[in-house]
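Class prep. Write one:
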Amino acid sequence: MKLQRFFKNLFAIVVLGFSAHVFAQRPQDGHITNMKYGVMDGNLTRVPFWNQGRIGSPSTIMGYVLEYPIGSGHIQIEGIAPVVISKIVDAYGVEHACCETCWGYPDMSPDGSTGWCYYALAGYCNPSQLEAAMSDDPYTWPDLWPDKMDDSIDPGWPKAWNGYFGKGVMNADLETYFVIDDDPDEEFKYYPDVNDTTRHGLGTQIYIRGLQWRNIMTETHNFWLYDVDNEGTTTYDSVYFALYTDFHIGGDTQDVAGYNTRLDVAYCYDYDNVGLPGNYSPVPVCCIGYLESPTLGYDGIDSDEDGLIDEGRDSGPGVWLFGPTGYYFNGKLDEGRQKAQTGEFYSNWHWSGDEDGDWEGYEDKNNNGRWDLGEPLNDDLGADGIGP
């Protein structure tokens, strides 16, 4: 996927993925005593975070603000936090909208000792120091990674980085990894696991990764991956995932926010284009984009304005057919928009799992429109050669 610079002065938080899985096993619970801090400073941005899920922090707490450019002291965002919401029915038969997050000052237990929110799981960093696990500092790593204990060859991956791209693989210039859990939320008399009346919250854990690259195309981008697991026995008919963001673009609150469904981004910019301190200009635009996340493949809605409905992300290659590819023509989106206004849509030969028809299965060196013996076949490994 190519990331284009939509603005000359762009600071971006990119949600690399949001996925959901179901696990029956409950290894442990989150707790406030597991909290660690970290700083992502591997490119032109500096992003402090807590391993309970909150990105960004007031300088009075950690000594850093979420700034761009790095070292400038120019705060752009006060904080970001994941939000997971679903409907529950408590032990008294009363329905509630249960919201799990790690933002700010959460609801507290009656005795004031525990926040009803996400907290970090133990085991995903070195417990004898203050920092979250960072790929460039082996001292911050745990002796064994809890989610790699089933590796039959090297259980727990000792002395190896638990990388998104594999064991010991540091594709990104800087990466962090931690897990948060919503068990501390005891606001409702509700038990998401029928086999465990001590389990509270929605029964969810989120495996979180942050990644930064220094490459010129991504030097102002931050990638975050949220893998949400339902470890209880309750099946939820709908779950909402969001990022709560407190923008401070340019160091003040003169912000204008919105979203663009064609570019698939939410954005925020400073109204007067003058930042504080120092009255600097121009002030960057911040964009937040979801690259991969579950979609409703059955609602009949063209939610991303590409002329296609009921698109899925888990359909596989499908079958080879001739049919509509929405507004896309040869993999390019905007060429078909004017034609679609007249009720016409492009049709091409394509795999049904590739709805926009932009997959090129081979390199047509002689430009005859078909594959000939000796012409290279393409795969989905990418330039780094790492699959799938």
Observations:
- Confidence is low (pLDDT under 50) at residues 1-8, 21-26.
- The helical segments are 59-62, 337-340.
